[in-house]
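Deviation from plan, reported transparently: S-adenosyl-L-homocysteine complex.
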Amino acid sequence: MSTVVINARGEQRVRSGHPWVYRADVIDVDAAGGDVVGVIGPRRRQVGHALFSDRSQIPVRMLARGDGPFDGTLIRSRLERALAYRETLGLDATAVRLVHGEADLLPSLVVDRYGDHLVVQALSQGMDRLLPGVVGMLDELLRPAGILARNDPKVRTLEGLPQTVEVLAGSVPETVVVREGPIEYEVDLRRGQKTGLFLDQRENREAAARYARGRLLDGFSYHGGFALRLARQCEQVEAVEVSADAVSRIRVNAERNGVTNLEAREANVFDELRRLEREGARFDTVVLDPPAFARNKASVEGALAGYKEINLRAMRLLSPGGHLVTCSCSYNVGETLFAQVLHEASIDSHVPVAIVEKRTQGRDHPVLVGVPETHYLKCFILRRVE
Ligand code: SAH
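Because the crystal trials were delayed, the predicted structure below was used instead.
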């Protein structure tokens, strides 16, 4: 079997529960990119088995620990366990994340269900090599109408893998219709962001429904996830989104759901917040769900300035007693740092706010203890106190 030897620091990292070993901690390689390898420690003891990449900064992604032989049925049993867990959640939705990579002990694999269809992503050389087998197992376990590979994320280029979108089993129509709670969405699985929708916000949309009322501003709306879910309990809804494609989806989705009090605008949220402030506009509910401003450590400072700006302007727009649902999906901006930015925004805007709820991604996107990279989404619900 192919092998990779790691140093003491790499071994320590694996022992502390993290599945990744960085390039600097790999001492010796007798393997080809994409192999399942035996991982050997500095004292020549076997640490476990892993996926190997010859191009990535993360050459080793652990699949199993210990000195036993590699169990060929491991991937299947992990898949079965991931699916069984989602069953137990009793989610009121037909679009659900079934496999969340590292957190399901299936590193760099994503599987999302959209009704009768599945979307998969393999984000490392090793998982890319295993994908045909994984697709066969999913086909057998779930009998979907079609399986689409959205293997177009940029991270694949770091692995030297091509960016492709292809149907791997059955057939996949131009759009599929899924339901999340009371709302139906029409989704383009081939061209939508992520795998089509932002499934990780489902429970935060539900939580926001506990507070939303009056005039609502949904900033960074994408297909109107928050706006549509909250429209029925609000008087007037304004959704702001920079992508023209997404704005037309918001309108199609509003019509599909009989939502008539929603206006979708194609605009930059930064400009729109300034304009509304100049107008002296007031909102009872504001949602901010921007894309990750900090995609790496180098961009954290700029990202913090961005988060602060949109949050302080949103606070100024809030009417007393109103709520701000504010999110960050930058892994590099942790919860404490995000809370600090919100504190600064509150001071600079002279708007006192209380934290009503501190939330994270939905339960179908679990966080694995000891692997901070699996905790990326922060969602604070704030109330303007006066
Ligand atoms: N809230 C959405 C997900 C938002 S994802 C949901 O619940 O489904 C972030 C969105 O912000 C993307 O659709 C992206 O196109 C949009 N976006 C990025 N920068 C923007 C900007 N400066 N102004 C407005 N929208 C922006």
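The pocket of S-adenosyl-L-homocysteine is lined by residues 193, 198, 201, 220-223, 225-226, 240-243, 246, 268-270, 289-291 (CB under 6 Å). We consider this an acceptable substitute for the interim report.
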